[in-house]
Amino acid sequence: MVGTGAYLPAKVLRNSDLESMVDTSDRWIVERTGIQERRIAAEKECPSDMGTAAALMALERAGLTPEDLDLIIVATTTADTLFPSTACQIQQKIGARKVPAFDLQAACSGFLYGLVMAHHLVALGTYRTILVVGAEKLSSIVNWSDRNTCVLFGDGAGAVIIQQSATGGRLLAHDLGADGSQGQVLTVPAGGSRLPITAENVGEGLQFIQMVGKTVFRLAIDAMESTARTCLNKVGLPVDKVDYVIPHQANMRIIELLATRLDLPLKRFFIHLERYGNTSAACIPIALHEALTAGNIQPGEKILLIAFGGGLTWASALLEW
Fold first, then answer.
1. Catalytic option among 251, 278, 283, 289
2. Residue 10 burial by Cβ neighbours in a 10 Å radius (0-12, 13-18, 19+)
3. What is the full DSSP assignment across 225-243?
4. What region, left, alpha or beta, does residue 29 occupy, with left being phi > 0 and alpha being psi -120 to 50 degrees?
5. Set 108, 150, 231, 283: catalytic member
6. Is 272 one of the annotated active-site residues of the chain?
7. Active-site residue 278, yes or no?
8. What three-state secondary structure class fits 105?
9. Residue 319 · residue 306 · CB < 8 Å
10. Confidence check: pLDDT of 102 > 90
11. Is 248 a catalytic residue?
12. pTM for this entry
């Protein structure tokens, strides 16, 4: 991992702004989620625009150009269009001509799925330099009249460059998983081929995120603890030897309970959800970039990345910086 980048839209939507939109309050939101504000993309600003900005930053920090790329993987649940893929649109916007590119959809776990895939492709020698992007415009699929979901999500993008190199972080272990039998607890019902969007189902709000909050909360904690322990067990690393944890930024109470279950002090967790909310596949690469640029991660340290998302999916990755 030789370069990172991030992009956050300029517009800030604070809890006080939401108070005038739905029946909620700053206190209610902070107590239940820990979120104080989130970034919202401009009307014509798409995941490919945000992903392009993050990708160019990552390339610059790695000392590379778009021509150096061999593959582009984009994790997103809010693609610009069904096709062409957001990855192809980023390819065009950064000028990486004819480089293979595709989207990957594993909801909030998508970036880690893409990171693991990139690791194996580089380790096998199939490709030398891979761009992995997480980019989301969740504001486009949020029901702004539903106080249980609209307070949670934000927009943004993060990117990393994976390369055969003696510098940067290396992947020591990973764990990926899914349970399709629980898919109904976090879903967007309309918009696919099973239920194309019509005037009738738009009136029912089926094009928006729907979530069974209490069930998702319970499943998220169980899955994130389990995947973290499975990942660490693969290399025999005790939990207390983890120097830093970058968890999915969904809810402060989930992170606090996860810290308790893993018996790790909360100060070892990187947390930015108070500023950005849940940016799904973008949150971990954004957090990783911010942690690195802030100097929170030092050479030789063990970094644990953990995610959970709709599908249901979960993922973890252990890095040595």
1. 278
2. exposed
3. HHHHHHHHHTTT--GGG--
4. alpha
5. 108
6. no
7. yes
8. coil
9. no
10. yes
11. yes
12. 0.97
